[in-house]
User: Fold this.
Amino acid sequence: MQIIIILYILIFGLVIGCFLNVCIYRIPTKQSIISPPSHCTSCGTRLRPLDLVPVFSYIFLLGRCRYCGKRVSARYPMVEGITATMFMLLYFRFSLSVEFIVAAFFSCILICVAFIDFDLKIIPNGLVLAGLLSSIALFVYNLFYTVSIYGDSTWYNPLIGMAGGAGFLLLVAVAGSLVFKSDDAMGMGDIKLLAVVGLFLGWRLTIVAIFLAVILAASTSLVLMLIKKLNSKSTVAFGPFIALGTFIAMVYGWNIIEAYLGFIPK
Assistant:
């Protein structure tokens, strides 16, 4: 039975990942994510159901459009695979529960944010609003049933996380503008995103998410500088690191906290 559930979740994740590809492509250009139907971005031909089977269509068509032969970006199966994997990890963390449903939806928002910010260095307000709605839903649910993400049943826990998350990046933005005389140190999109993340995770896991995001961003930037892909004047989108740090905190945050506390002498 467990294997069947996991299989269904993986298939569902792949299908949702296919839809997220549409969102990532269309949301920044303010196109409808519903109409027109999926089509080849090169020749404009409407894609048939066999062209839209997640991952497998890409493999069987050798990464090319069936109609014009132009190469299709490997990002499409990547997003589908990432979504399915995230859904599976969330199932192992929350099983089939309200938290799983809300966390899966929030993770979809994070995926869209990560890829759009990576490409264009913007975080659309619509995605932030969608994330806020899911965070509010979890907040309200916690008023009646204890949410394991927060770590306790206090109603104000996520509000502290929201204020702390946004406050941290706001301080970074102000400090960066004063030191570097620039407004590009930290975008408002990152600040709004981390406010929503704080409301979703609660203050404890928000600290973990911020820590992971900063470490991942710093490590990646260092590697890119060492291989000459980045210089001291280059900017790196922080949204993807917030998204990754948030998901890791969501699934493994309490394990990380317990491991950290285990190193502290008693």
Notes: DSSP finds eight helices and no strands in the chain.
